[in-house]
Amino acid sequence: MNVAVMGVGMHPWGKWGRPFLEYGVAAARAALRDADIAWTDVQYVVGADTIRNGYPGFVAGASYAQALGWTGARIASCYAACASGAQALDIARTRILAGLCDVALVVGADSTPKGFFKPVGGDRPDDPDWLRFRLLGAANPAYFGLYARRRMALYGSTPDDFAAVKVKNARAGSLNPMARYRKPVTAEEVLASPMVADPLRLMDICATSDGGAAVVLASESYARRRGARDLVFLSAVSTVTPTFPNTVLELPNFATDSSAAVPAPERPFRAAIAYAAYEEAGVGPKDLSLAEVYDLSTALELDWMEDIGLCPPGEADKLLRSGETGLGGRVPINPSGGLASFGEAIPAQAIAQLCELTTQLRGRAGPRQVPSPRTALAANQGLFGHGSALITTR
């Protein structure tokens, strides 16, 4: 059985100062219109949770169902940090594959604080995420800076390479009506922006944003009965965890596992996320027409290009400079504009990535359209070993 993406919808990213439910409901209604079905047709609702927005955020599935109007639909809610959207999609897809429902709605939305994220309130000395803020004073940009320094030390990447990522993504984002930042930038502007976490400057780091995204998933037979055409299939969802020993430092941990007694796995965690999706979908990196990756920083996008197998470790800078990952290139990366153009709305991110993959594979991306795409991947990652990768095919 194939699971089809019948409809996609988004609320534009920005800083709107409204309740997260408004963004999620707007995205859900857009997805339902796109799928040409009614809310009352939906049998299952999965909400990706937001932990900053009170009790309704913790029970997002029920919150969206109530906001759209109670229908008796079954629900689920899930939280996995930045992998929340992928896990929500996995829950809905699995239920369809099991034959327990024909059509499901997946929604994620967030209202974020001003500035960078901070820990949820309260004292939790046994919580490593709380500790890294309070003990080390390490907000997210500090970790992004450490990742960037690691890349510079290992592969010789430079701030000029990082700036080139922002230039590429800003160009794509300028063509996307859902993006928060819609202005092209120059490398000189990136390199002149304020230093935040050396070597990363303000324009190297993604913002925190309000926004929402939703998709309607259905069995292929249901979609065809409803007259859907040009179907895009969600062919894989990877939610793998690391394999011991995990020897690459990942936020929010302070140390890695030791490989003194047990050798490190063949692939580090982020690469394992993507390759699990490839295996499930029966495709490989060479099959990709485009990819959406988790560019929390410009440097991290370069890491992801290698992790998803587009090039060997240390070669992403060269691939970027060749133009192959920009619009019009061989494998455009973040043709949506990425987090560089959207910012983080955590529960919505992986769902928004699926919206972009679907729009591209349908050929409806307008001026940022990738020519004749057939296979696309989205990669993301949540705290505490939450993998997140999706593959769509036509």
TrEMBL record:
GO MF annotation terms: acyltransferase activity, transferring groups other than amino-acyl groups
Annotated Beta-ketoacyl synthase-like N-terminal domain residues: 60-111
SUPFAM superfamilies assigned: Thiolase-like (SSF53901)
UniProt KW keywords: Transferase
Start and end residues of each Thiolase C-terminal domain: 274-387
One Pfam assignment: Thiolase_C_1
Keyword tRNA-binding in record: no
UniProt key word Transferase: yes
PANTHER family associated with the record: ACETYL-COA C-ACETYLTRANSFERASE (PTHR42870), NON-SPECIFIC LIPID-TRANSFER PROTEIN-LIKE 2 (PTHR42870:SF1)
Protein name in UniProt: Acetyl-CoA acetyltransferase
Organism: Nonomuraea polychroma
